[in-house]
Amino acid sequence: MFTSCETSPVPRERLHRRIFAAAGVYNVLWGCYAVVDPQWVFRVAGMPPQNHPQIFMTLGMVLGLYGLLYLDVALRPAEGVTVAAVGLAGKVLGPLGWLWLYLTGQWPLASGLLLVTNDLIWWLPFTLYLHDCLPGWRAKYLTTGRG
């Protein structure tokens, strides 16, 4: 499993630290708010309240925990490739799941607001980070035969 780009300094390290710090704080705050007010998305999107708000509360808990992982990447950017790759995968798969809900008429278009701040705005910075770490990952895992 790839975990780092430790063989060389992380290009744009200061930028990546700031991005992952912002992602971490955002996710922790979003997660906490989802736990405190699990019906907010449904109110904003004009959807009926959930019968089981605990599901959204659990989502908030998971996103808050992702925030702690992103804060760790901000502290140690040379070691955050796995976290960033899993985070980006979630930020791509989440919108695909929403698209299915929208296309099948289960969720209204207004609920897509959630995608902008939770997923779409992070695609470019997470991808840039992974791009910057790819040479170090290659050097460590592909040329040495480890991994």
Describe this structure in words.
This protein has 147 residues and is mostly helical. The chain has one domain (13-142). The protein is 71% helix and 0% strand. It is built from 5 helices and no strands. It has helices at residues 13-36, 40-44, 54-75, 81-103, 113-142. The model has no long low-confidence stretch (mean pLDDT 90).
What is the CA-atom radius of gyration, in angstroms?
17 Å
Note the overall shape: elongated
Uncertain segments: none
Structural class per helix/strand content? Answer: mainly alpha
- Helix fraction, binned, reads over 70%
Number of domains as seen in the coordinates: 1
Give the topology string: H per helix, E per strand.
HHHHH
Strand content: under 5%
Average of the residue pLDDT scores: 90
Number of helices: 5
> Based on DSSP secondary structure assignment, what is the total number of beta strands?
0
Give a short account of the largest sheet: none
Task: Give the N-to-C terminal Cα separation.
Answer: 6 Å
Tag the structure with descriptive keywords.
mainly alpha, 5 helices
Question: Can you give me a brief rundown of this structure?
Answer:
By secondary structure, this protein is an all-alpha fold. It has one domain.
Strand and helix layout:
Layout: H1 13-36, H2 40-44, H3 54-75, H4 81-103, H5 113-142
